[in-house]
Amino acid sequence: MSDAQVQFINVIKSFGDRTILKGISFEAKQGEILFILGTSGTGKSVLLKNLVGLLRPDTGEIWVDGEEVSQISEEKYFDIRKKCGMVFQHPALFDSLTVFENVAFGVRKHYDYPEEKIKEIVKKCLKLVHLDDVEEKLPQDISYGMQKRVSLARTVAISPKILLFDEPTTGLDPVTTNAVNQLILDLSKTLKTTSLVVSHDMHCALAIADRIIVLDKGNIVDQGTPAELKASKHPLVKEFLMEATTHA
Ligand SMILES: Nc1ncnc2c1ncn2[C@@H]1O[C@H](COP(=O)(O)OP(=O)(O)O)[C@@H](O)[C@H]1O
Ligand SMILES: [Mg+2]
Predict the structure, then answer these.
(1) Distance 194 CA to ligand 1 centre (A)
(2) Atom of ligand 1 nearest to the CA of 38
(3) Is 54 helix (H, G, I), strand (E, B) or coil?
(4) What is the CATH number of the domain that holds 133?
(5) How far is ligand 1, taken at its centre, from the CA of residue 88, in Å?
(6) Contacts of 151 (CB under 8 A, 6+ apart)
(7) What domain range is 42 assigned to?
(8) Can you list the positions of beta strands (E) in the chain?
(9) CA-angle at 162, arms to 159 and 164, nearest 5°
(10) Domain membership flag for residue 1
(11) Which residue lies with its CA nearest to atom 8 of ligand 1?
């Protein structure tokens, strides 16, 4: 095992006779923003779900913060999920709970803190995502972009060592996209978390990634720093690059 905070070793995952992950190996180091780039349907969400134990691999090893987790019990996974904060594509906030209670929810579930401390954490996290005066609002009373920030604050509130983003900018307008990209950068710097971002957005990858891994049909087909990938000869990467420059 290396000093990586997240490591996949030859991970295979199938559904019936369809193999989605065909022996994936990679690692993310402490504090790094690792981008996993791939077209839709290629297995990005399946990869993240294997990491947080929502799915289990058929074979292979998954290391999180020094522990091999692929076959541990559901009960033990509770502690792993505390380390891995996942931000889903859609905010999926609880409609009937205020912004405050949405952010406090995971904290209450994972920690036995007094109310004062919970209040302090919620306020700090809302500030981190630049949200003011929305604590008592319901999700439907704020914009989609703001809901997305609340979902970020909610994840950050449990103090994860590892932040996972599933398509953080998909479906957002360019202004909100830039704001979310900036937030991922800021959070990773301020909190010194390791971040894994999965997306098909090459523009976003070039803007924030330390390293990019390109996933295609269940295999890693290319990888490198943004500068290295800009010079890639791989046809899929070239296609991604073309799209990033035309739509940027
Ligand atoms: N629970 C599941 N059962 C069966 N097939 C699944 C399941 N989850 C995902 N898949 C299939 O795995 C493939 C990869 O899905 P996914 O990881 O969601 O793609 P994406 O890269 O767009 O996130 C898709 O063909 C999808 O239909
Ligand atoms: Mg997905």
Answers:
(1) 25
(2) 21
(3) coil
(4) 3.40.50.300
(5) 15
(6) 87, 88, 91, 92, 93
(7) 6-247
(8) 6-15, 18-28, 33-37, 59-64, 67-68, 84-87, 162-166, 194-199, 211-216, 219-224
(9) 110
(10) no
(11) 46
In a domain, 41, yes or no: yes
**Is 199 strand, coil or helix?**
strand
Measuring from atom 6 of ligand 1, which residue has the nearest CA?
15
- Atom of ligand 1 at shortest distance to CA of 46? 17
The reply to whether 91 falls in a domain is yes
Structural domains counted in the chain? 1
How far is it, in rounded angstroms, from Cα 244 to Cα 212? 14
List per-residue pLDDT tens for the chain, 248 residues long.
467 899 999 999 999 999 999 999 999 999 999 999 999 999 999 999 999 999 999 999 999 999 999 999 999 998 898 899 999 888 889 999 999 999 999 999 989 999 999 999 999 999 988 898 999 999 999 998 899 899 999 999 998 999 999 998 887 888 888 888 988 998 888 889 999 999 999 999 999 999 999 999 999 999 999 999 999 999 999 999 998 887 65
- Nearest residue by C-alpha to atom 24 in ligand 1: 41
- What is d(CA 102, CA 214) in angstroms, rounded to the nearest whole number? 34
Residue 70 lies in a domain: yes
Ligand 1 neighbours, Cβ below 6 Å, are: 15, 20, 38, 40-46
C-alpha Rg value of the chain to the nearest Å = 18
| Residue at 13: amino acid letter | K
Burial label for 125, CB within 10 Å (0-12, 13-18, 19+), is buried
